[in-house]
Amino acid sequence: MAEQWHERLVRLQAAKGWSNRETAMHYIALSPFHEETQLDSVLAMFKRYRRGEITNPSPETQQAIAAMFDLPVADFFAQRPLANQNVPDRLSPTEFTDLVAALRMPKVGEAHLAQAEAEVERLCTAYSAQDARSLTVEVDDWLKELASLVHEGRVSLAGHERVIHLTGWLSLLRACLMWDQGDEQATHQARVAAEGFAADLGDNVMAAWTWEIRAWMALTQGDMPNVIAAAEAGIRCAPNASVAAQLHAQKAKAYSRMKDSHKTEVALDRVREVLDSNDLPSNVRNHFSVDPTKASFYAMDAYRTLHGRERLADAMADTVIATSTRPDGTVISPMRLAEAQLTKAVLAARDGSPVTALELAGAALNHERRSQPSLLLVASEVAHELEYRSPADGAEFRNHLRALGAPDSPSS
């Protein structure tokens, strides 16, 4: 059974190290309907919350509780869990052949363009779990088909714009896939192509995503000033769109590695504000529709690299693990799961538990779907902690990471 919000409240309160009185005071500071003179009644209310006696607090109460932990409401009080949304079925070989044949007709109609749009949506949704190489093949096939539609003039003017729009998103998806596989040149080429399509369309959200990819690349390369510069450029493109939450998250990750706690907290708070101001996406698994539960994922990474925030990092990792799997144990988001396992490995190593750290790191490195640069970045943090506290284990693990292509030292 999925974790209930009141259970998460108890867990995060413990991670913050707050007493019941401190929790009530934090709540009063954020609630529009309470003040310090009502402390006793708020304390009584929170006791009922903690016991799960109140299942559906008012929207204002939900907002204040989520804000206490710098999380958006739709993360803390999940409206549409990630595990409840399936990836659309892939077309059968016959259906795919028929659609391609229709797209190669002298004139392509609305119905077949709509089918192509559905396929691009499926590809963006499959990103989180499908093998990167096989998904890249599918994306490349579609990019070729869409390019031929434009070059051969087989769509109307309105259809032409729709095809360019689809091509832009597929170029972004290809950039992500190529960076997952560690191919910097191919990533750059796909990202630049997406920049061009965004400029042609005047699509500021698409443009912001090109900057998000730049920020992500800089993060995994250890270039924190460029993470911040790229993120700020992307935010200027689309300050209120959900992509801005991911850009603020990249800033939080960079600031945490620069050991700036205040700026990290400010950036995480902006993540919450942006996601709270946006409607829940119709497809929470589309890679370019920012799922509010990613706020816990972002916070986990930032808190892991800020010393003294280990309990919060651990609590956020538990949330990420829970939301990355279905109740039956099926993994739906292996890349998020891997980083959560590595986070716990880092914390286990700091606690002087090398065996546990190595077990968790081994599980994380065993997922077939992976983002190689991101995975190795966090795995290098595990190696760093092991080298400090258990040199023999650290040296062995570091050698294993070198074989996988990891840098010799973490960017943190």
Task: Summarize this entry quickly.
With 412 residues, the chain is mainly α. The chain has 20 helices and no strands.
Can you walk through the features of this model?
It is a single chain. This protein has 412 residues and is mainly alpha-helical. It has 3 domains: 5-69, no CATH class; 70-292, Serine Threonine Protein Phosphatase 5, Tetratricopeptide repeat (Alpha Horseshoe), CATH 1.25.40; 296-412. The protein is 70% helix and 0% strand. It is built from 20 helices and no strands. It has helices spanning 5-16, 20-30, 39-50, 59-68, 73-76, 93-103, 110-126, 132-151, 157-180, 184-201, 204-220, 224-237, 243-257, 261-277, 294-304, 310-323, 334-350, 354-364, 372-389, 391-404. Helix 7 (110-126) packs parallel to helix 9, helix 9 (157-180) packs parallel to helix 11 (204-220) and helix 11 packs parallel to helix 13. The longest helix is centred in the middle third of the chain and has 24 residues, at 157-180. The two termini are 36 Å apart. 48% of the residues are buried. The mean pLDDT is 91.
The low-confidence runs, each spanning 5 or more residues with pLDDT under 50, are none
CATH topology of the largest domain: Serine Threonine Protein Phosphatase 5, Tetratricopeptide repeat
Q: How many distinct beta strands?
A: 0
Please identify the oligomeric state. single chain
CATH architecture of the largest domain: Alpha Horseshoe
Mind describing the biggest β-sheet? none
Q: Could you state the order of secondary-structure elements as H and E?
A: HHHHHHHHHHHHHHHHHHHH
How far the N terminus sits from the C terminus, by CA atoms, comes to 36 Å
Spatial shape:
globular
Rg, nearest Å: 23 Å
* Total helical segments: 20
Average predicted local confidence, pLDDT: 91
